[in-house]
Design brief:
The structure is a single chain. This protein has 329 residues and is α+β, with helices and mostly antiparallel strands. Helix content is 23%, strand content 46%. It has four helices and 18 strands. It has an 18-stranded antiparallel beta sheet that branches. Helix 3 packs antiparallel against helix 4. The radius of gyration is 24 Å and the shape is elongated.
Length: 329
């Protein structure tokens, strides 16, 4: 009996040594990969700064800790910073990571949208088919601040979640007029009495900054933004529909939208968002078509207003008007 007990203790000790070896090997490897990824981003044109990278979490969790992280594009089209970012996984879930960013701040689209959060949470999962799923939300809604949204004051959200799906798989080749869709997304948010969801995708090359050069490359190489489902509900009405957009040579929106609108409130909100000084006679509840072409917006086949570039202050003004549809009461 005593001999068997010693054998068991010996096996447990060897098992602990083996597990410790595996854990530290995986921890150093994960830390090395994160360091290399940040270096690759820097080599790719991003500004990347951090004060330290380390690992922790033994024996249960596998953590990679990044202190003082700051990432931004050369023209500050995208900016993100956090006092610390912790990436969390386990030995038995190598394709699934959680992320926690403390004191997070960020902005994108040339600073037209900005947020801050005491504790931003994310999930990264690599599937067998090569698709990568990322989900971002907040730990405490009261701590999340959307200080600026599309060039105007932010709005208070009761709940929100952003989901992304993309693939690192090689492109299959020529897909026609527009590039292959590389990113799918879904945005869901609620405010008191309102609900908003947006599902769609982006085709073409990745957009690495909010500048004419970057957006022009995206446009010229088959860039297309597709909204498959838009659904916005308020107590006084609802707007549902879909649209697709790219850019013309002057960086003005080019595309079309098909909406179904119910409620006078939503009709007037749409007219305001489109910059129409007078409520158009051809706008009524039911199916509504919008065409954006040659710097003009046509509503149900009739010219309604001029379009401005999405880059710079004119772009912020355009985004601000569109947002009125979402945020008006």
């Amino acid at each position: 009996m005593h001999k068997h007990f010693k054998t068991l203790i010996g096996l447990l000790f060897l098992g602990m040594l083996a597990y410790s070896g595996l854990w530290y090997t995986a921890a150093f490897d994960a830390q090395k990969k994160v360091t290399q990824q940040l270096a690759d981003w820097r080599d790719g044109g991003l500004k990347v700064e951090y004060s330290d990278i380390s690992h922790s979490g033994f024996p249960y969790r596998l953590n990679v800790d990044i202190a003082g992280l700051h990432i931004n594009t050369r023209a500050d089209g995208f900016v993100f910073s956090a006092s610390s970012v912790t990436l969390i996984s386990h030995l038995w879930t190598p394709g699934h990571w959680l992320a926690e960013a403390r004191d997070a701040k960020g902005s994108f689209a040339g600073g037209s949208t900005a947020f801050s959060d005491d504790r931003l949470l994310g999930s990264y999962r690599l599937h067998d088919d090569g698709n990568i799923i990322i989900v971002v939300t907040t730990q405490t809604l009261g701590a999340f601040t959307l200080g600026k949204l599309m060039g105007r004051d932010g709005i208070a959200l009761s709940t929100w979640q952003l989901s992304l799906r993309y693939s690192d798989a090689p492109k299959t080749g020529d897909t026609g007029l527009y590039g292959e869709r590389f990113l799918d997304f879904k945005i869901a948010a609620t405010t008191p009495g309102h609900s908003f969801s947006l599902t769609g995708g982006v085709s073409g090359p990745g957009i690495n900054d909010w500048t004419e050069d970057a957006l022009g490359t995206w446009r010229d190489e088959g860039g297309l933004l597709e909204i498959d489902v838009l659904d916005y509900s308020v107590p006084k009405g609802r707007t549902k529909g879909s649209f697709s957009l790219t850019l013309d040579e002057k960086f003005r929106p080019l595309g079309s939208a098909n909406l179904t609108i119910t409620g006078d409130h939503q009709l007037h909100a749409l007219a305001k968002a489109l910059g129409l000084k007078k409520f158009p006679k051809n706008l009524a509840a039911g199916p509504t078509s919008i065409m954006l072409q040659n710097g003009r917006l046509a509503l149900n086949g009739e010219k309604a207003s001029k379009l401005k570039p999405i880059v710079g202050k004119a772009g912020e003004s355009l985004f601000s008007k569109v947002l009125d549809v979402i945020s008006s009461n």
